[in-house]
Amino acid sequence: MSPRRNAPRRKAGQRQENAEDALVLRVTGAEQRETGPDGEWVLRRISGAAAAKVYRCPGCAQDIPPGMAHVVAWRPYGDGADRRHWHSSCWQRRTHRSARPPRR
């Protein structure tokens, strides 16, 4: 008896996706628009493999270390100066936080 195949079988003539192509799609990603009570935002999700620098999350004032997946958000109309890197969970909870100055 042969072992069970977990991967779907390719049909004749179907090209297997190159690992480099998949990485480019994840790294560049598509920008999403999100509207909430705090206005309209453009989002880009950054994979852990693409996160190469340390950023400071404005939601919790903690570092986002290299290798951690996170969200980049900015206003759709402007020069991009308000572009910020957020922990994914901080971004999801941003509208539920009380207004307080960031800790230093």
From TrEMBL:
Domain of life: Bacteria
Compositionally biased region (Basic residues): 1-13, 93-104
Region (Disordered): 1-21, 84-104
Protein name: ATP/GTP-binding protein
